[in-house]
Design a protein that fits this description.
30% strand, Ribosomal Protein S5, domain 2, globular, 4-stranded antiparallel sheet, alpha+beta
């Protein structure tokens, strides 16, 4: 149980895990995590861990046949052991939450890809949560971008693409208001108690792709919204730098 969300120490706001309110959790990105996908990444944001893969299919959905452009789509899943109590497998069809998240992942990555330059092929993005501690959708987007870069490099090396269709990077992070304090990158305990919960998706150029913000039985002011947006923008700039560093490593 989370109590004492924030305590005052030497003028700095310190949270349950020792972070200040403007700090995101430690992020590690491990590329080439799996052998078979054209791109694969294990991303860890604190205790949240997601495997992101990209696989290439040399065809497009029927509605794009003959149009001279490609497609990118995403699927999202939480494995049974990823949560405190067993998460049931989606054997009877995808649940509403997972469907909403995978649509968000797909939209976020399509926003940074020139589908005409991709040619008539499909990029399948799969994000599988192996451990959840808040921010699984934002970690999925941030990690999937790196896996996407590796898949595109694979196509270029094979001579199937002459140039990258990726226009810029994309990163995502959560922000929220917990016990009256605006905070960056909420862990599960903070998220479960948040008065306001928001997810931001931005490009490396500093442009917004999506803002999802909800008052959880609460409201928030325009000034609080601006504070959350500034916190999120700062966090995504940091994530972008981490993505760039990860992509420098073979």
């Amino acid at each position: 149980m989370l109590y004492h969300y924030v305590r005052q120490i030497g003028g700095n706001k310190v949270r349950i895990d020792g972070r200040t309110v403007e700090e995101h959790r430690k992020v590690t990105i491990t590329r080439h995590f799996l052998s078979h996908p054209q791109g694969s990444v294990l991303i860890a944001m604190g205790n949240t861990k997601v495997i992101c893969t990209v696989m290439v299919e040399e065809k497009v959905p029927h509605f794009l046949k003959g149009c001279g452009q490609g497609w990118l789509t995403a699927e999202y899943n939480m494995l049974p052991g990823s949560t405190h109590t067993r998460k049931s497998r989606n054997t009877k069809g995808i649940d509403g939450r997972s469907q909403e998240i995978q649509r968000l992942i797909g939209r976020s990555l399509r926003a940074i890809v020139d589908l005409k330059k991709l040619g008539e092929r499909t990029l399948w993005i799969d994000c599988d949560v192996i451990q959840a501690d808040g921010g699984t959708r934002t970690a999925s987007i941030t990690g999937a971008y790196v896996a996407l870069c590796d898949a595109i490099d694979y196509l270029i090396q094979l001579g199937l693409l002459s140039e990258s269709p990726i226009k810029t990077s994309v990163g995502a992070i959560s922000v929220g208001i917990v016990a009256g304090e605006p905070m960056l990158d909420l862990c599960y305990e903070e998220d479960s108690k948040a008065d306001v919960d928001m997810n931001l998706i931005m490009t490396g150029k500093g442009e917004f792709i999506e803002v999802q913000g909800t008052g959880e039985e609460s409201t928030y002011t325009k000034d609080e919204l601006m504070t959350l947006l500034a916190l999120g923008e700062s966090g995504i700039k940091s994530l972008t730098a981490i993505q760039e560093e990860a992509l420098k490593v073979f």
